[in-house]
Amino acid sequence: MSEAKWYVVHTYSGYENKVKANIEKMIENRKLQDQILEVSVPMQEVIEVKNGVRKRVQKKMFPGYVLLNMVMNDDVWYVVRNTRGVTGFVGPDSKQPVPLSETEMRNMGIKGDEVLVDFEVGDTVMVVTGVWENTTGIIKQINTHKQIVTISVDLFGRETPVEISFSDVKISK
Asked: 3-class DSSP state for residue 1?
């Protein structure tokens, strides 16, 4: 059996959640749990200001698209492609969809190698490579999906947040 990969399907705008529900129902009805492992509509939290009121809301990261972690074969392709609201797979040819690469998935925060780090929020670290080399800062946030830390550095007398890759920092002694 093939390995499951992430694929992207295009939907009618505004129908992403309906398509997700339809595919999940199809998985249950046709017993495809071992072939379609996950159906996702990636969301992100944003701050919206309406009438002077700030509110945290969930917005779709990729309007018009649904992500599927699945084993591609003719039967699964047919089921997904013929789900109400799906207009097709993303790729140069709708018959041969192209899976997302590891880099693309990591950049979107979908999947990443599990990395154990020896630092935590509040630790002082030194940047060892790149533009910020030899700069020290305090970790304000750790994003394990994207494998980056947000550190606070002193820039022109002001605290400035900077995103740095895990591999570019080490604990400062």
From this structure: coil
Q: Are residues 150 and 168 in contact, defined by beta-carbon separation less than 8 angstroms?
A: no
Domain 5-108: give its CATH architecture.
Answer: 2-Layer Sandwich (3.30)
DSSP letters for 41-65 = --EEEEEEEETTEEEEEEEESSTTE
Cα–Cα dist 38/136, whole Å: 40
User: Class for domain 124-171, per CATH?
Assistant: mainly beta
Query: Which amino acid appears at position 40 of this protein?
Result: S
Domain with CATH 3.30.70.940 in the chain: 5-108
Q: How many CB atoms lie within 10 A of CB 153?
A: 16
Confidence of residue 56 (pLDDT cuts 50, 70, 90): confident
**Length, in residues, of the chain:** 173
Q: What is the pLDDT of residues 106-163, one digit of tens each?
A: 777 665 455 677 888 999 998 888 888 888 999 998 887 667 889 999 888 899 999 8
C-beta atoms surrounding 90 within 10 Å: 15
